[in-house]
Amino acid sequence: FLGECGVGISETIGVGVPKKVTAFEVWLFDKNDIQTVTKVLMSDNAFNDPTIRQKLEAKGEPFQAVAGGQTILETATLRLVARVVDMAYGQGSMPENSYFDSLVLELAIWQKQ
Hints:
Layout: E1 3-13, E2 20-30, E3 35-42, H1 44-48, H2 50-57, E4 61-64, E5 70-74, E6 78-89, E7 100-111
Parallel strand pairs: 3-4
Antiparallel strand pairs: 1-2, 2-3, 5-6, 6-7
C-alpha cells in the first residue's frame, strides 16, 4: 500500500437533481509522506469568478477544465497526472459554462524513483 487517489465533488451550483457540479477535487494521499495533495478542477465560470475561485482555493490549488488539459499532483514518493479526456458543459438557466454535463478524467499514478 503506497497511498490512494480519487476525485470528488468540490462545489455545486443551483438546486435540483442531478447536482450541477461546478468544481471537482482531485486528490493524492501518500502514506510515506502522510499528506494529501489536492487540486480543484473548475468550470470556466468558477475559475473566472473571483468569489467562487477564492472559496475553492481554500480546498486546493485551482486548475481550469480544458479538454486535453492536465495537471500534476506530487508528494514525496508519488506522482499523479490528471488529464481531461473529454468534457461538456450543461445548458440551462445557469451562467454559461458554469457546470459540467459530463467529464472524463484519466488519472495516471506512479511511484517516483
